[in-house]
Task: structure prediction
Amino acid sequence: MRHITSFILSLLFICSTPFLFAGKSNTLHKLKEGKWTGTLFLDSNATLYFKFDVALKDDGTYLLTVMNADEKIELTDVVVKNDSLHAKFPFFNSTFVWKVSKKGLFGYWQNFQKGENYRIPCSITYGDFYHPLHFLSTFYPPSNIHGTWAATFDPGTPDAYPAVGAFKQNGQWLSGTFLTETGDYRFLEGVVLADSMVLSCLDGTHAWMFTGRINGDTIRGHFYSGKHWKGEWMAVRNENASLPDADSLTKVEFAEPFRLTIENVSAGAPYGEFNFPSEEYKNKVTIIQIMGSWCPNCLDETRYFLSLYEKFHAQGLEIIAVAYETGKDPAVHLERIKQLQKRLNIPYLIVGGGTSSKALASEHFSMLSEIISFPTAIFIGRDGQVKKVHTGFSGPGTGTYYTEYTKETELFIQQLLQEK
Result:
């Protein structure tokens, strides 16, 4: 079975590659409205498929949307330059560049966070979402992998780490994610065919694909991250699979009121010093979020914290985000912070912590044992004491895990607000 699947994927790659830069005419063809299928060609044996939608807005411009399971990402700054169409992801520093022809869009996805020359060939063709494994499912009925799996990435190596696979299956269609100690792999979508499965997503900063060979209650496969990384993973069916408590991974080292001083950029000024506590946060319940605008898990957490702020701010909840950004230029950091605030309409303060480094964050937050993840959230009571440190974030792509976390967090906030 895996030989058939590999042959189909390889043939599709070979057939598509010569046309990636077709359509050199200066005349742009009008795009059809409706559902399209996107492909990223990671290598000769790995083709990532994603859903794409084209709609025409009232002003005559196009609304282009990338979809990963339940996630919809509307591309921004869709412009024509020379004979090419450029479309940016809204929150992450990456863009599509396509030639437009009658056959579709052909070009590449460029991820500037990985470097100026980090490009992956990409094509978009008209028609409802298509995956070659879906076609073959007529002849090879799918295995059932719906449920919870105890997973390990890079098994048998010093870099091995645990995960929980949470999969939802409807016929041959598959969705779900992997949860890890530092966050989740967000909205994954794919298909199951006999003894093969694939899940993937393209969210603007990551191009992830997971392939697997199913053998009863065991799955073994490969994990691709863009064109620069390929590793192995395995999973065993286990409905009780779990990870260490995210509230226990980072410890508070000193039993004294929380203090923080950061000398760097902030949303209010190019340079300056931020201090906590201050009169503004006195007798308030405060969440300090350690994050970065480049981090999809941080984006998920920020959206959730916005709902918390709206619900509990009038009762005394404050939120402060400390952003650690890629690169070393404070002016660039400041611009990214401002863009994030504007696009999400964030009403609370975001302080620039500096370059995205867990070591630097650990140095700044020296009261804690270690910062091992972006994001990390510190919950501080009215008395200024740290009540809880939550490592990572299980976002909406995790389904019931996210639902349970939000319920527990809101109850916890209510309890802290009631304390005097």
